[in-house]
Design brief:
By secondary structure, the chain is α+β, with helices and mostly antiparallel strands. It is built from 15 helices and eight strands. The longest helix has 16 residues, at 132-147. The chain binds glutamic acid (GLU). The site of glutamic acid has 11 residues, from loops.
């Protein structure tokens, strides 16, 4: 393990160094998100052995949004297996914005990636259930198992999204017409919108990421949440599409699987080591938290966690352990 004082230093510095950044803007297409205080900023690291390092507003609750896609993907994959999941949802980046209709038009109404809105609704619809309520409870239980505490729906966020999600409803019908919607399309859209409307903190997000980093076992509760054999598929998708149309930039500069959401959360996972989470509402044009990206990148680079730094980092990592 990396030395604890070194991790806390990196977390504290990533928070202080990026505090003054004011670029980016809150998501405005969901009214609730536009109203969140843009000054809020928290950073948290959780290691695979359950150590927690925090700075700033790391216990402030914010909307999980797109980050929920990872956990619903995990649930659907647990149920149908990685091969079926792959064939029914796909695994390739679209190269287009997360809610692109054009991406569907270009690919016979098939979603390609489980981490864009289309693929996420397709994943939601794959979760076996007698109806939307049972599907929703399973998704909520999965988010809670990853976080190691009971995650709750925000009625305010949900209300704000359910009454404005017309674009996603159109996507759900296109998926249906392409044969990639596995329950009633409007039910899937409604449950997907709920799964985006739960509240988490940067601390929760880091625990969720550390569960992936630890191969599917939550390092705080010690409970297995997903099969170890499914984790590589989740991390691969996070690398390919986790940071929206800037996933390539993130892989190039940070070198870790990650996921962000328009609520301002951003996560990176260093497999076998730790996860780094940050929260700050103002976003870049692609939908990634500006300060979140900067803070997570800074911690990852200071701790030398990037997956692709084979030659020099193996040595440096081992001397840091
Ligand atoms: N609920 C949001 C939507 O469906 C999530 C988008 C995101 O975070 O990327 O548009």
């Amino acid at each position: 393990m990396i030395d604890a004082a070194k991790i806390q230093d990196a977390v504290t510095r990533a928070h202080t160094d990026n505090l003054a950044t004011t670029t980016g803007a809150n998501a405005s297409y969901i009214p609730y998100l536009a109203s969140v205080d843009p000054e809020l900023f928290g950073v948290c690291v959780v290691t695979v052995d359950g150590q927690v390092f925090e700075a700033g507003d790391s216990r402030f609750e914010f909307a999980i949004e797109s980050i929920s896609k990872v956990f619903t993907m995990a649930l659907a994959m647990e149920e149908v297996g990685p091969e079926v999941f792959h064939s029914k949802v796909g695994a390739d980046p679209t190269g287009l914005p997360f809610n692109s209709v054009m991406a569907l038009e270009l690919h016979n109404d098939l979603p390609l990636s489980p981490l864009v809105n289309a693929g996420a609704m397709s994943s939601t619809s794959l979760v076996s259930a007698d109806g939307p309520e049972e599907r929703w409870q399973k998704i909520l239980a999965m988010q809670s198992a990853f976080a190691g505490r009971s995650i709750q729906l925000s009625d305010d966020v949900n209300q704000s999204e359910q009454t404005t999600n017309f674009h996603n409803r159109a996507i759900a019908w296109l998926l249906y017409s392409g044969g990639a919607m596995y329950s009633d399309p409007m039910e899937a859209c409604e449950v997907y919108t709920r799964q985006c409307s739960t509240l988490i903190t940067a601390h929760d997000l880091a625990v969720m990421g550390a569960t992936l980093a630890a191969g599917g076992v939550n390092p705080l509760t010690k409970r297995r949440v997903v099969a170890a054999s499914n984790v590589p598929h989740l991390l691969a998708e996070m690398t390919m599409e986790g940071l929206y149309t800037r996933s390539g930039d993130f892989a190039y500069t940070v070198g870790l699987p990650g996921k962000s959401g328009v609520g301002g959360g951003l996560l990176a996972v260093a497999p076998g080591v730790l996860s780094i989470a940050a929260f700050s509402p103002p976003l870049d044009p692609a939908g990634n938290s500006v300060r979140g990206w900067a803070a997570v990148a800074q911690v990852a680079n200071e701790l030398n966690c990037g997956l692709y730094r084979i030659a020099d980092s193996r040595g440096e990592n081992s001397s840091a352990q």
